[in-house]
Amino acid sequence: MSLLDNLNQDMKTAMKAKDKPTLSVVRMLKSAVMNEQINLGHDLTEDEEIAVLSRELKQRKDSVAEFEKGDRDDLATQTKAEIKVVEKYMPAQLSDDDVKQIVTDTVKDLGAESMADFGKVMGAVMPKLKGQADGKLVNQTVKDLLK
């Protein structure tokens, strides 16, 4: 079952349950997926679907940080609830230890030794972890290992 099929099914379920917050998020996700599909001119591959979901998730996480900085706990709470809905559609996330192991292996394979190799390591690691780990976590892990 494709992501759009899942979103349509969940949208119907949310409508029947009169779950407005979930319905709103599912509609936004469906809209983002359909816009990406129109922009690319073809049905999305699984990787492209994950990229759209990752982008939506990152936007919401960034929003939470900004809301908390501005003492807007009401909006932060609402956005955290949206994050939980988006995460339902994401692939399972790797633990910090798993991310560190993958980054460590990649650093060894590439022979990276300093921060000058940062871009090369990130370029090799991100495709391996696509959708399975937060980019900020990967970035920090690579920096820690290259220091």
How many DSSP helices? 7
Order of helices and strands: HHHHHHH
How large is the share of residues in beta strands? under 5%
How many distinct beta strands? 0
Give me the CATH fold name of the largest domain.
Hypothetical Protein Yqey, Chain: A, domain1
The largest β sheet comes out as:
none
N- to C-terminal separation? 44 Å
User: Mind telling me which CATH architecture of the largest domain this is?
Assistant: Orthogonal Bundle
Taken from the alpha-carbon principal axes, the silhouette is globular
Q: Which structural class is indicated by helix and strand composition? A: mainly alpha
Mean pLDDT: 88
Radius of gyration, in Å, reads 18 Å
Helix content class: over 70%
Low-confidence stretches: none
- Give the C-level CATH assignment of the largest domain: Mainly Alpha
Write down the domain tally: 2
Question: What name goes with the CATH superfamily of the largest domain?
Answer: Uncharacterised protein YqeY/AIM41, N-terminal domain
Describe this structure in words.
Helix content is 77%, strand content 0%. The protein has 147 residues and is mainly alpha-helical. The model has no long low-confidence stretch (mean pLDDT 88). It folds into two domains: 3-87, Hypothetical Protein Yqey, Chain: A, domain1; 96-146, Arc Repressor Mutant, subunit A (Orthogonal Bundle). The protein has helices spanning 3-16, 20-40, 46-69, 73-87, 96-110, 118-129, 135-146. The chain has seven helices and no strands.
